[in-house]
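During the reporting period the student researcher (J.K.) took over the structure-prediction task from the postdoctoral fellow and processed the backlog of single-chain submissions. One of the processed entries is reproduced below for the supervisory committee.
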Amino acid sequence: MKVLISTDIEGVAGVFHHEQVRAGNPEYERARLLMTHEANAAIAGAFDAGATEVLVNDSHGSFRNMPPELLDARAQVVMGKPRYLSMMAGVDDGVDAVCMIGYHSRAQGRGILAHTINSFAFARVYFNGLELGEAGIYGALAGEYGVPVVMASGDDVFIEEHRPLFPHATFVQTKRATGQTSGISLSPAQACSAIRTGVAAALAQHGSARPYVLPGPIAVRIQTQSPALADLFCQWPTLRRLEGDEVGFDAPSVEAAVRMVNSLSAMSSMLR
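J.K. obtained the following C-alpha cells:
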C-alpha cells in the first residue's frame, strides 16, 4: 500500500494567525514545526496500517516549509515548486490513497485562515458550477488518477464543507473556528495522537473509499479579489471576462484546470 500525505499548515492545531503561515518571523518558525509534527503523526499512522511506502507532500506556500531532517525517515518528501500537480504531486506515482493534513476551508468562509490557493488573487473558484476550496480541487485531481481521499484533518468548518465530497473519509478535527483568526484548538500532542489514529483507521478500510471524480471538460469560473486582477488574467487569450471581477475558461480535465489556475496565481504576483 502506497500512501500520499499532503500537508498544509492553516488547519494545524495551534495555528490561527497570518504571521504563523508566512515565512520571515518567529511565529512561522514555530508553526512549521507544528506542521512537521502533524505530518510525522500521519506518516506513523500510515505505517501502523501496513503502508509499504509513504510520500509526504509539503503543500503550503513555497512548498518548502517542513525541515526534511525532522520528518520520519521512513517517508519520502515532495518539496519545492513549480510542479504540475502542486499540492497533489506524487498522486501519479502508483498511490493507493491520499491523506490531507492541516487543510482549511475555502475562501469567503468562516473557517480559520480560510482561502483558496491564493488569498491575494482568488475570492471564489468554481469547477463546473461547484464552488471548491483547495481540498475539493485537489481531491478531484486525485480522483482523476483514480485515488480516493481517505482521511483529512483541519477545523470544524473545513470538515463541514468537505464531508459531502469525501463521504467515505475519516475526518479529524484539530480545532474549532470562532473567527477567521480565532478558535479553540486541541493541544499539539492531542492533535498528533488523533491524526495518527485517524490515518491508521482510514487506511485499514481504504478499499471501501471511492475517488471524488469531476468528469471533464471542466468549466472554470473565478471571482478575483479585484477587477485589476481580472484585467491581468484576461491577458491570457483563452480566458473570458464574465463580470468586472470574474473570469472564466474551459479545460479538458481537472489537471489542466489546476495548472491554469496555478499559472494565474503566479501571474497575480505582478500586481503585488
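The committee noted the following: The mean pLDDT is 97.
J.K. will present the remaining backlog at the next meeting.
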